[in-house]
Every structure is written in C-alpha cells, then in structure tokens.
Amino acid sequence: MTPYVLAIGQGWTVQQALDHVRRHGEDSETLNVVYVVDESGKLIDDLRIRQLLLGDPGSSIAGLMDGLFVALRAQDDQEEAVRVFSEYDRVAIPVTDSKGMLLGIVTVDDVLDVIEEEATEDIQKIGGTQALDHPYMQTGYLQMLRSRASWLVLLFLGQLLTLDAMRFFSDQIERAIVLVLFVPLIISSGGNSGSQAATLVIRAMALDEVSLGDWWKVMRREIVFGVTLGLVLASLGFLRILLGQSLADAFGNQWSRVGLVVGLSLTGVVLLGVIVGSMLPFLLRRLNFDPAASSTPFVATIVDVTGLVLYFGIAAAILL
Amino acid sequence: MTPYVLAIGQGWTVQQALDHVRRHGEDSETLNVVYVVDESGKLIDDLRIRQLLLGDPGSSIAGLMDGLFVALRAQDDQEEAVRVFSEYDRVAIPVTDSKGMLLGIVTVDDVLDVIEEEATEDIQKIGGTQALDHPYMQTGYLQMLRSRASWLVLLFLGQLLTLDAMRFFSDQIERAIVLVLFVPLIISSGGNSGSQAATLVIRAMALDEVSLGDWWKVMRREIVFGVTLGLVLASLGFLRILLGQSLADAFGNQWSRVGLVVGLSLTGVVLLGVIVGSMLPFLLRRLNFDPAASSTPFVATIVDVTGLVLYFGIAAAILL
C-alpha cells in the first residue's frame, strides 16, 4: 500500500481539485482517480481525473459524485485484496481503516506478486515440500534440505505403517504369494486417484469456487467418480490377469478368484483414494490448516496403508 | 487488449494534448498515461497525464519526451505479458505490431486472470489430471471423468509394469519372503522424493527462475539432495528394522543383511526419485511439451517400476 493518494474535499470546486492534482500529483502513485473525503477524512467517493477535466471548472465536486466506490479495509488479508481486484477489474483500490478513514491505495501490480507467490506456495505444498522463501536456485542447500527432509521424514514415518500392515498379513501372503505381485499396482492406483482429487479440491478452494459448506456436495460427486474410475481400472486389471493367464498361466489355478480380488480391491482403493483426497483439504481447512498441506504424497501415504488393509482383507474373505 | 488509447503527436503543444485528452478520454480505458506517436503512427514515447498538467500549456510535447518506454508486441504470448507486467510494475502497457505501430493497450487487470488460469492449469496437471476448462463444481460429470480417467488409465498401464517386475523377481521373493514387507515403503519413498523435486522444478520453470540450459546445475544440486535425503531415510529404515528385530525377532536371522538391503535401496530409490522428478520437466520442455505434465503420479509411476528393479537387484546381490 502507498499512503500517497490524491484526496479532495466534497465542498471543493472542480478547479480547486485540478489545482490540487497539479500540485500534489507528483508524489502520488495514483492513476486516473482521485478520492473524495469528508471533513473527518472518511472516504465517500472516487472520481476519475477525466471527470474533472471534462467538468465545468467552477462547478462543485459534490455535483460529480455518485457515492459508489469499492474499498479495501486495512485488516483485509492478501487473499481478499486479490478477490476484490479480480471481481471489480480495477487497477487501484483505496484502503480505509475500520472507521472508513482513507489510508492510501493499493495498485494491482502489487497484487500480481501476491497471486504468483500464493500459487507457488500451494504448488510446493501439493508436491510435499514446505513452501520455500526464495526461488529454487537461490535457496541454500541447508534450507532446501530442511524443507524437504521434514516432509519426507514425516511421510516415511507414516509409510512405516505399511510394514506393519504387510507383517500383519504375512500368513496370507505365504499361503498365496501371488497376492504380493499386485501390491504396487493397487496402492499406486489409490494414490494416483487421491492425488487427482486432492489437487482439484485444493485449487477450487484457493479460487473460492468451493467453500467448507460444500463438503457434502463434493463428497457425493467424488463417490460417483471414485466408483466409475475404480470400475474402469478394475476392468483393465482383470483383462490383464485374463491375458497373462491365457498366454502364460501366470497366476495359477485360482486365477479367476485372484482376478476378482484384484478387481474389487482396485475399485475399493480408487474410491478410498478420491474420498481421502477430496475430504482431507476440507478437514485441514476446518482445523484452520492450509488445505494445500494435504499434499499428494500425504494423501498417497494414507491411501497406501488403508489400501493394503482393504486388499488383504478382501483377499482373506474370497481367496483363503 | 483495448484499441482505445490516447495517442498524441510529438509536434503538438501541451495544450493541444490536454484538449485531446478532454475530448477523447471518455472512450479510453487508459490510466494516467498518453502515448506519443510519430507521423506514421509508430510508438515513440509514453507520458504521464500529470506531466501534461504540470507542464507549460504552450510548450511542445517533444520537450517532455525521454524516449524511454516499455511495450508489448501483438505476437507476444500471455506468459510474456505476465513477465513484462511483473518486471516493470506497470498498470498498463502499450501494444505495437511488428513494425512498432501503436495498436492499443493491455491493462494489468486482464493479466490477473491469465496468471490465475495458468497456475490452476499447472496445479491440475501436477496432480495428474488434464486441465479443466471450467471451475470444479461447474465441470460436468462426463468431462470430469474424461479428464481424470485418461490420466489414471495411462498411469495404470505404466503401473502394470510393476506386475512384470514383481513376477520377474518372484523366485527371490519366494526364497526371502521378508523382502516383500518393504515393497510399499521403498517405492513410496522414491515417489515422494520425486514428487518434491518435480513440483519444485516445474514451478521454478513457470516463474522463469530456471531455464532449459540450467539442467546440469539442477541435476548437480538434486544429486546432493538425493543422496542426503536418501541417507536420512535409510538410517530411519535401518533403525526401524533394528527395533523390530530387538523387540520381536521380526526379520529373522538375516536381519542385518535385510537392513543393509533396505538401507541401500532407500538411498538409491530416493536418489532415483529426485533425478527422475527434476529431469523429467526439462525433458518435457525440450520436447516442447508442458513441463507441468510431469505430474507427481507420473513421476511416482516411473520410480515405482525402476525402484522395484533396483530393490530386488540389490537384494539378489547381497541376500540371496
């Protein structure tokens, strides 16, 4: 915000206002707009300089006023400023304090940087890094290591649960070793569908297309997508097993049951992925965290652990 | 771009210019700037209206000129416009044709929308979806399914290679079933570190912090990060095995070799992840694809397949 702003009184004449612009225009970053304030300094209107130039020099400012103006308050956050600029298509917007006193103006070129910074932060968080303070190449080795290691270690500790899940099911694995062949395929499918859902919802939240209250609407949509996408992948997975079996007897005499287990698991894990991916941003926002912290690796880690349990659970019911 | 722009001649007087602003200012979206053109209509300077207001009405425009101005050419793309606005902190920039003729102006509020759209596209691609044409909630079921299914199916087909990798090593797996316990942990660690690297590089490219020629500098940095981060995760993994072995004899009498295999594999797979993640955006840009298409799931899929080969390869050398 710049405090240099062209403020004129409503009792002035057009000529007085033009003289004021001539005298003080040099300090001002303002554009073609002057701001009308009342005796106490409260903002009551904005006028384009061209309205002054076109007006009769002897007429009063009050006669040109329409009382319609857009302003930001000093306590508004950057996101609100971005929203107002986007909505009103202005190049400068005045800023007032909580009592409506004119403090200065914000120009849209300041907002450009804010928008780019916010998008960068979101993208870095989605990718599973703490947001960096400096550009990639200017970030020191130690700071970069810290930002990345903290998340990687956290994810690794979460991922260690897959070890427990696998150990828990090691009896089943030993009895049907064919099951382990599909482990990477199944957990990754859940992670991928979850990453998609999470990034779509995070971005929709950042652009105010989706608010906290929409969680149920989003959930309903995502359940439909999850089941459909899951069935698509399940069909492909089943086809692959059918093919492998016909060509090379790759999956033993229980191949059709294996196909059923894999197909059901893929459907379930994709549905799980989109539900976790789409709801985690809502949960984080509800808890006043940044929704973008539900990074794609974070979603993938949750889905990996739960997906393994789902897969071996289904296998235990059908195959063993 | 708007074609309504205040253009004045260099031979005019300040008074003539002000009269022109008075007469034609109404049509113009311009701000406080008028553009000086020569006889043929070629842009030769910009002047602030305040320079006119402050000047002697009888003096000539040529006397106020400094010949310094910033302009866009009509053939420049949106990204170039964003770059120029960010660099020069202007609220409006004139546009010329290839011969320098003034065509109109672009105001920064038009650029706001471009920046947000581009960030949205990048985020959606990073998350492994085709960029959507409409906001999340307004995108129809069918279009949303198409955008998501196309990527998911592609990733799934890639992921099917993990099935072949697992089958290729099934002899080793049967001889040392303990190996399969670590499969999810190892492939996910590679995927996570790759996602980090990819998003950092994609964003740095989008902001022009990193260009194609920097690939080797980035590679060197990422190798250092990859080895360091890999060793951190390897230590944690080894500690976990040591702990599990001490408390519950969880990994059999070969546990120290298992620990070595897992530690080496984690280091290798994290290094692999950051190299694939950081170099894929360069490769895609080199091939004239959008670097953002090296989505985190895409990177994870490549690293899953190669990571499995690495893991079982190391296991074959040390354990079997």
How would you characterize this protein structure?
The structure is a homodimer of 320-residue chains. By secondary structure, chain A is mostly helical. The first copy, chain A, folds into 2 domains: 7-113, CBS-domain (Roll), CATH 3.10.580; 140-318, SLC41 divalent cation transporters, integral membrane domain (Tetracycline Repressor, domain 2, Orthogonal Bundle), CATH 1.10.357.20. Chain A contains 11 helices and 6 strands. In chain A, the strands form 2 sheets. Chain A has a 3-stranded mixed sheet. Chain A has a 3-stranded mixed sheet with strand order 4-5-6. In chain A, helix 8 (183-206) runs parallel beside helix 10 (255-286). The N and C termini of chain A lie far apart (69 Å). The mean pLDDT of chain A is 87. At the A-B interface, helix 1, helix 2, helix 3, helix 4 and helix 5 of A face helix 1, helix 2, helix 3, helix 4 and helix 5 of B.
Number of domains of chain A: 2
pLDDT under 50 segments of chain A (min length 5)? none
Content-based structural category of chain A: mainly alpha
Largest sheet of chain A: 3 strands, mixed
CATH architecture of the largest domain in chain A: Orthogonal Bundle
Radius of gyration of chain A: 30 Å
Compressed to H and E, one letter per element, the order of chain A equals: EHEEHEHEEHHHHHHHH
Tell me the strand percentage band of chain A: 5-15%
Overall body shape of chain A: elongated
Main β-sheet, spatial strand arrangement of chain A: 1-2-3
CATH fold-level topology of the largest domain in chain A? Tetracycline Repressor, domain 2
